[in-house]
Fold this sequence. Notes:
heterodimer, B: alpha/beta, 6-stranded mixed sheet, 16 helices
Amino acid sequence: xxxxxxxxxxxxxxxxxxxxxxxxxxxxxxxxxxxxxxxxxxxxxxxxxxxxxxxxxxxxxxxxxxxxxxxxxxxxxxxxxxxxxxxxxxxxxxxxxxxxxxxxxxxxxxxxxxxxxxxxxxxxxxxxxxxxxxxxxxxxxxxxxxxxxxxxxxxxxxxxxxxxxxxxxxxxxxxxxxxxxxxxxxxxxxxxxxxxxxxxxxxxxxxxxxxxxxxxxxxxxxxxxxxxxxxxxxxxxxxxxxxxxxxxxxxxxxxxxxxxxxxxxxxxxxxxxxxxxxxxxxxxxxxxxxxxxxxxxxxxxxxxxxxxxxxxxxxxxxxxxxxxxxxxxxxxxxxxxxxxxxxxxxxxxxxxxxxxxxxxxxxxxxxxxxxxxxxxxxxxx
Amino acid sequence: xxxxxxxxxxxxxxxxxxxxxxxxxxxxxxxxxxxxxxxxxxxxxxxxxxxxxxxxxxxxxxxxxxxxxxxxxxxxxxxxxxxxxxxxxxxxxxxxxxxxxxxxxxxxxxxxxxxxxxxxxxxxxxxxxxxxxxxxxxxxxxxxxxxxxxxxxxxxxxxxxxxxxxxxxxxxxxxxxxxxxxxxxxxxxxxxxxxxxxxxxxxxxxxxxxxxxxxxxxxxxxxxxxxxxxxxxxxxxxxxxxxxxxxxxxxxxxxxxxxxxxxxxxxxxxxxxxxxxxxxxxxxxxxxxxxxxxxxxxxxxxxxxxxxxxxxxxxxxxxxxxxxxxxxxxxxxxxxxxxxxxxxxxxxxxxxxxxxxxxxxxxxxxxxxxxxxxxxxxxxxxxxxxxxxxxxxxxxxxxxxxxxxxxxxxxxxxxxxxxxxxxxxxxxxxxxxxxxxxxxxxxxxxxxxxxxxxxxxxxxxxxxxx
Lengths: 381, 466
């Protein structure tokens, strides 16, 4: 949650972030909860921070997956601490109670900028991974159309667009998140996928083959993603696995991207193979899992209200409806004080005034309880 | 018997008295005119009194045709003795002439003012007899509507003594003899004041000695209270005495007055002391802090309006709150979403300032509405070729839920409104603290106008040597 520039500044000043060995063991305190297994989180942990197990952190978010500021904070503090908040608990309760034979639930997280939507997604992903679900996580959906590395025209469909590099990277992220579970489940492809005259993935081969192929061969990576997600959808519907798809900034799917074809026409997100792959799972025609989405203002998206109907637009609304809307609001006073206590404990806030009641009031007022703003303010002092 | 009274301009007040007695009065300094006047008069007994010495000589040498007879001893006894004839220098003459001219001028101005006031009263349909200065001001404001910003530049009609600087009347007579005993100090009024002060000090010392002898103590109930007043400053004192004082002189004056005030019996000369003290202006605002209102739920609240530049804000502050501040329906931090770069969000900090000073950050709720009524502001700077202006404090459009025009003036207006409303919630001491913090003062700074030939209000065009 802290800007990376702060970290580099510290390094330039000669202060290195604490190494794992030197980091003090977090002492038990009021603002922390010792329950680090998200499956056991309950109302009593509300408003408190829990530490994500180091292994889980590496597995789930090593390649990508957390916001830059949150991952920078995790590096600085040598731990990833997430706050247990009501929206996340709401989602978890629903997921626990959901029936795998019914069509998948779709959740939409919305709220003010910097309010904690991505962090909620991270919490739910952690729970899903701990509960043995497979994860399909798109951390920033708008990157596919705005800050992509490379796009090429798709081989199969001339109008479609592939992402050789980004899709391969995403598959690496998928692999990191799901390798162990996939190996346990030993899921197999249901169809044969022909990539070229010589290359093909036979039906019945493990899904990990698809993943490996996509990671190594960027040319086919996007098609691999498409195939992979179709397979997972089928497996989940058949009851062989539970699948959680998390798409952040899903409203980007119905925007124009900045990519242009050779003839100059604008590429829509809907023309991208990877996005089409994700959209398979957005449809309500599968069961055995859930979809967790987030909306956030994106460049090229509609300006104005940050509420779902405006940001999704008519197409997105039609595609996503019906969904469970969950508002992720700014933190309450107690939650903000918890964050401040955490910063104090980690020796990030060092001014003595920050520990006083008046200082905390001031920080709460200045940030308005908004987690992003609080981090921004705290990095100044 | 008619008397010719040669009066000096300084004796104008005698003019009417003498005229009533039926005497012919000639008022002139020029001897030629006096001679002419004398020739025109019938040959009656003439008596000169306080005659201008320059006139005396021709009269005495005029001979039998007409000239003053030797003055009657009785008449002379009652008159001011004649000064010996002496050459008056041109400088002195000029000085006396200037003094006379000024007095005449002032008299004329006062006369015109009085006439003008009566005309004005008639114009406004009011009673000329009871037309006060306030009525005059109101009439002028009505008849000469103006949009001039500076109140001092607006048309006004005041008594000439308020408009024209006071000048001293002639300080010496035609012979050059000064009227004031301390004339040669060059600041007679000032040194007279000090002299009186010392006199009074000595008098009080004598009184105290007498009281000590009688065993009487000073009356503590009458002890002078200088609270709420301060000594006139150097300019004001100089204006009062019609003399320009220097700093060391003023310091001496203040020191001497302080010594007088410290005397236990100083209350005897209260009038003298307070002649040189000005009452501190009591601010209107602190006098009229409104009482708290109560809503249907019994919750105290207060409303106030605040201003800054072209923004107007209306704030309602509720007591028994939890520190929630909303502006135009949005939470404060979301309405003022300008990032601050190094210094944080300045607009939020501005609104926080009065709550912080009053110590009510978590005990009041604020609902504010603010409007900006000024020129449309552009968010980003002028784009030049090859140069992208980096406005670090404005988030990108897709992060901005709503554009806010002129955020700093809106924030300033909200701060002013909240401060004014908070006065009702806090005690007098805190109100004073807030006043000293500058929270209660309406910031009158406005945008300076553009001038032709400049780029803006001050910045000039590029200077080219040739």
